[in-house]
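Morning run. Coffee first, then this:
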Amino acid sequence: MAEVTLIKAINDALATEMARDPSVCVLGEDIGRGGGVFRATEGLLHRFGPERVIDTPLNEVGIVGMAIGMAMNGLRPVAEIEFSDFIYPAFDQIVSEMSKMRYRSAGQFTAAVVLRAPSGGGIRGGHYHSQSPEAYYIHTAGLVVVMPSTPSDAKGLLSSAIRGEDPVIFLEPKLLYRTVKGEVPEGEYLVPLGVGRIVRPGADVTLIAWGGMVPVAEKAAAAAASDGVDVEIIDPRTLWPLDIAMIEASVKRTGRAVVLHEAPRTCGFGGEISALVQERCFLHLKAPVARVTGFDTPFPYALEKSYLPDPERTLRAIRASKSRSTMSL
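And here it is:
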């Protein structure tokens, strides 16, 4: 297995699936000769040609609408939106058409579209290039929502998404594109959707994090270990459908749960996870479920480091949970 970056693993998944299945095609702004804003599609135009690597106008609603039509006619389109912040012009196509196509047609049609989008902060992109919109799509019935945190998961989850029959919002933590490396199997490789990953086993506190927050969780857990607190980290990988069984089993063992994400706190996905843990694990909880999140403000440029959850804030939440404190985080 080769050790590669997360962005290279995504490129590998796209190339592998396009070579395997001639119905797979990619489309988006500047994805052809330019290889996309982050070079995720680099080399695909030369290998597969312009009929399967389609440069589009700057028109998100057109990109998503065209992808839906392609999927309804038997193709497997993978559409790229340059930043997740730019999806909003296509929001109606996603939530009113793509997510409901199978239901409204009683299964006569599907919209097996994979919609890739770089997500989250950490690259000083400011408030138009740093948002974490996963909760919008998790709230929409009919969509699968995925966010990997390692190169091997990026390749395996993307390949599974392309082969599936459901529309998938595939959010990629751009902070990790080139800052993490890992061994990735060569050739065809699948990671099942809907199955979480235990990043670090532990006995005292369950810490749930995804995307760019997984490395933050690992640093916080390492710091907590020096205090004698053994933290278990769970990366859901697929945010919806959520592997709640894995989370439930962990919290019932540890008796404590902390949810970590960079989206704003109010109505963030951490609130739903907290509710599910409370419903399923109430009699096992030794402390309230804690959340460490971004703030209820636009994503700032100059104060990015203050906005994003960091190991110190996460460690405070772990310590508070272990001591049964309800201190403000």
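Residues 325-329 have pLDDT under 50 and may be disordered. Good start to the day.
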